Amino acid sequence: MSAATTNQTAEEKLDSVQNRRARITGIVLILLALLVLFVLDVAPGEVATFKLTGPRDAIKVPNLVVPGAFNLVAAALLAFLGMRQFLRGGGRWSSLSIGIGLALVVLAFLVWATAGKSFSLTGMLQATMVRAVPIALGGLAGVLSERVAVINIAIEGMLLAGAFTGALIGSLLGGWIGLAAAVLVGGMFGMILAALVVTFRMDQIIAGVVINLFVLGVTSYVTSQVFAEHRYLNNAQVFRAWKIPFLSDIPVIGPMLFNQNLFVYGALVLVAVATYYLFHTKGGLRARAVGEHPRAADTLGIDVYWTRYLHVTLAGMVAGFGGAWFTLGFVGRFDENMTNGRGFIGLAAMIFGRWHPVGALAAALVFGFADSLQQKLALLNTPIPSEFLAMAPYIATIIVVAGLIGKARPPAADGQPYVKE
Amino acid sequence: MDVELRGITKRFGPVTANDNVNLTIRGGEVLGLLGENGAGKSTMMNILSGLYSPDAGEILIDGKPVVFEGPGDGIEAGIGMVHQHFMLVPVFTVAENVVLGVEPTGNLGYLDIKKARHDVEEISTKYGLRVPADELIENLPVGIQQRVEILKVLFREADVLILDEPTAVLTPQEVEEFFGIVRSLKEAGKAIVFITHKLHEILEISDRISVLRQGRITGEGDPKTLDEEKLAEMMVGRHVSFTVEKAPAKPGKPMLELSNLVMLDDNDDFVLDHVTFTVPSGEVVGIAGVQGNGQTELVEAITGLARIASGKIIFDGTDITHASVRERHRMGMAHIPEDRHRSGMIAKFTIAENMVLNSYYDEEYARGLSIDWKHVAETAAVFCVDFDVRTPSVFLPAGNLSGGNQQKMVVARELERETKLVVASQPTRGLDVGSIEYIHKRLIESRDEGDGVLIVSSELDEIMGLSDRILVMFEGRIVGEFDNTGGKADRNAVGLAMAGASEGAAA
Amino acid sequence: MSTSIGKRELNDAARDLLTRTQRGRADFEDLVVVPIFAVIAALILGALIMLATGVDLATIGKSFVALAVGSVGSLNAISETLTAAIPLVLAGLGLGLGFRAGLFNIGAEGQLLMGGTAAAIFAFSFPGLPFPLLMLLSLVAGAVVGAFYASIAGILKATTGAHEVISTIMLNLTSYQILNYLLRQPYIQKEGRADPISKSVPDAGQLPLLLDWVDPNLRLHAGLFLMLIAVAFVWWLLFRSKAGFAFRASGANPDAARYAGMKSGFVIVSAMATAGALAGLAGAAQVQGVLERASPGFSAGIGFDAIALALLGRSHPVGILFAGLLFGGLEAGGRQMQVDAGVSIDLIGIIQALIIVFIAAPLLVRAIFPWGFRKDAKGGSA
Fold this sequence. Notes:
By secondary structure, chain A is mainly alpha-helical. Chain A is about 65% helix and about 5% strand.
């Protein structure tokens, strides 16, 4: 036998992974095109009016009037992108096509829902930002702990603990001390999670589930046992919005970014700081090394256990801050299980955002958008049940985790306990 | 810099890994450290690099005793280790990996990646170890990754370099190049400890040799006055012959025929590139090659574990291209997996359960939907006796067995039935010499009973010793075929083929 | 050719290998001592939490008495304990089976909701069917829908590798919304109600009460037998059947299982579906035996408590049965505690969470009760 004749003939019908992925993306896009064409169809004569400024705004911008034909254009574009993916495939184009495609669908949806009516885009974006805060902070907490390879299911519990502490201490000692206490208690649960999984080598998922159950139990117990009788313990001042002069007068993005309370600014700053820290500092490099290859880090004298304790505690503090949003940043009082799964959505935002702080923020904004849209839908009188919109983020997360669209890669050692030799 | 180990003892539970070991390492010298798998070489070097702390004994650097409390301390003292399994972060760049732990920083902990890149380029020029500083590790071939490992140690200004089985992933030609690097480091005054179980390598590169057996130093000497036979005796404690006793092969009808097997990876690159060959009954065919050239995927394709993109597999006259793992197994294909811990056995399960891991559904053991565990246990006991698996009971977890006994258990499971083809991947990796000899004997017995035998091993010695015919794999292709009847294949030519040099040529 | 097996004789050397080793003290500690200490430690911490929230010692004493009386102190207490244990054990068996197969199914809550709702819908859709038939078919409907809902996560994992923890969490959250939506549909919603609640299960679809001949208020229902049958079935499935061997092998070492020719996709989907069927049965039993209808959040966290149960029972059917009785007792006793001592039943949730902490981190229990264990025992084997 002579050595195999090896010509990489491109004509061969090979079952290739990338082609398959591109085909799936293509089919999804074409289905979306059909959805826009047949479900979100707008009578050609109708227009959708988006208000960009409110009556009291300093700078006035004319309303944005979109003709119904926009949806036909959107459907055509989606179909084009879909066909392109299906026939040609192509690595980097996949994610981009999907991104453009989803944006088109959301716009088409808005035009459809608003057709023949008018709708305040500014108010909606402002609400989006507000609702994105706990999700973004939850996601950031997830990024910080998973980058050092500790899976953090306990974000939900940490948010709840932050919300509870914020309300209790905020009622007794004022908002700032309440906030500080919420951050500390969040950090404490981070440290407990680290202790359970690093020192006591408990399964990371069990540890997270347990912390969630424990926090839910304690906060519910105190709420019914103590708060029910002593209402003054659960009545905190809410942080007011700080209007930043001039910047907040910019149409559309001004109210969204520069007329918000402490929690919105805090979340944006934390995302920026975390990004700088993780990718441009010594500490960040070491933390990521611990998440990718803990034994390599260990052989170089980096203390794996200490690094994990530190970052999971920091994650808890971030989540505690995010939790305080529910009480000190929004309603001023604590209710049983008031986080209602936001921590899990934060986890989803982290996966969507590919374990990057900015990505997690972007994903949180998308989820926040869906959340505020759900509130607004009732106003617009659309025939879509609000439950379906509420489900959308969860289903989108499942699709991303399944890798049907794009492929996210978690830190290599994620979820694995490290045992020193 | 000179380092001395005095009376080092280290125990893991009941096992004494190092027993009163004395060793001296001198600057400008290569110390060869020889020992079987499990002799305690790695433990000793982990003590020296500060990863483990010894239960007794002391380490002296230039005559002064030192105490290491963590891996950082060894590096601090100028002792650097190049691990057998690379300690590199695959998604970091070369520069990031080299500076990790001793990063050049600016204000606010800012990581000065420009300086890091510059430093790495400087040191790589100094020692003539060229690497692409901005490339991700996962995109580099293993040979370059090894250079990065060495640079990491040099960057920390180590004077003592411990190289743990550094040649395991290299072709014979790359080994020569690697020895050049070792010699130039020696000339730069570094002290080098070269750990291996390969006799000819240690004779070639060392200035001094120490032999370790069962945790003790059993011999020391000058490579000029020693030969392979003496070293082997020191290493194993008795006379060993490294040649496998076997009669000439009597090849019969084709048992396994592969034609134009193609497999692709996630990026649509070829992992198997039109592989075609035949394994006849009564012959041992060995696949030589450096790890990661498609051997694992080849075995997965043959045994049905991985899908192929195109090509055809015929087993004893039947087309099995689309047959499942279980169907192939039932037809008489035995598979000894390359990593018994990961894929060959279940450590938590009992020996009895492990013995029927791939045949529990068979009429022999199953009663309707249930399994007849009494019969399973009895059969397992018979197998254990037959294959010399030493255990007090078949109801013990397989994880309790020693490595050699675990592998014998796996081999027993695979060979104790009607077989036609044996696919053995790295069948003796990490085993002691006694177990190696035993498993080699059983594989030759299978051949003599008329089975086709396919051996895949990255140990060229094993391939040369066992095979009647040798095929060489390089980058997913079969690049050479050698007749090895009576061991006549040219070792050097096989080595060249492993490096892809003699593509298309056949001896 | 290599020799075949059947003819080989069992000689003395081989017979020697058939001696069973005694279960070591380490196993005993792991299976019995750790759980007992975990429960004790959790109860003590529960008392401390009561103290911290201003409950006086006398009331704490009273609440522990109430806990005991309310769980085993009377026929009614025992009936309540068993009633509470039924859905817990059913769902816990499913989760334990999943753990054995290496699947971390957090989704029992959602599977239970979907299963229970399906059982309710089926039951009121066919009011004409006679008694045992409608009851049995409704249970089957619950199991099938639960299995289907769990299979979504299973199929995704098997085909794309999507981690089941994330997908089951998302499926839980989705199930709440699906339930909210369904319960408002005219066909399902109870006539004349504005809030989301389903029509009632007709009498023929209900699990009959077992002790109503003693006292019509005793709620124990025929789901008890369902629970016991499920325990026996899961035991057989895991430790005696061919499929169970593949489940356990895949859970202990998925690579080795794949190399041995077990189909990981089959194992994942079928283990997930079985777990979902059991959770669906739990929901159906709750709807057909206790609640009579589906309403939002009727699962009351049973699906999450079942995770604790499966851990406490070491994923062993018999262990899960005992753990379920314990948790059922805590649940029933907790209600008594709330009435007698005025301590919120939410305390029980805290105690349950603490029990799992101690179970899942045996090192922690050993650190707290060093005298309960052998000196040289190192580490846990959870």
